[in-house]
Specification:
There is one protein chain. By secondary structure, the chain is mainly alpha-helical. The chain contains 4 helices and no strands. The longest helix has 23 residues.
Length: 112
């Protein structure tokens, strides 16, 4: 694999290629939703142990980037199997958040 940055479009293409080469087929949408929930839980565990009050158990290692990538992997697979263009969805989300929240956080006294 190349180490240069990739776009969301490229991530979707790579995931689809991997699934069709090694994964046989996508898991169904509900299975992938369950897997996403599991992966988010694993990410939460690492966050709680790294930044919260919990400590790592003996033998556990902090693997924050791996857990984040696992969450992203499942999201990309879900986007592929449901026909979501993540590049376009991201563009729309940034546009929506900018329009809706363009002064909200700047005026939030709790953030100052």
């Amino acid at each position: 694999m190349d180490s240069k940055p990739i776009t969301l479009e490229e991530a979707q293409r790579q995931a689809d290629e991997w699934i069709h080469t090694y994964g046989v087929r996508y898991f169904n949408e509900l299975t992938n939703m369950a897997i996403l929930t599991e992966e988010v839980g694993e990410l939460a565990r690492v966050m709680a142990r790294t930044y919260g009050e919990q400590s790592f158990k003996e033998g556990e290692t902090p693997n924050l980037s791996e857990e984040m990538a696992d969450v992203l992997w499942v999201l990309v697979c879900m986007a592929n199997q449901t026909g979501v263009d993540l590049t376009e969805a991201w563009r729309r989300t940034i546009e929506k958040k900018t329009k809706r929240d363009n002064t909200r956080h700047l005026n939030n006294e709790k953030l100052k």
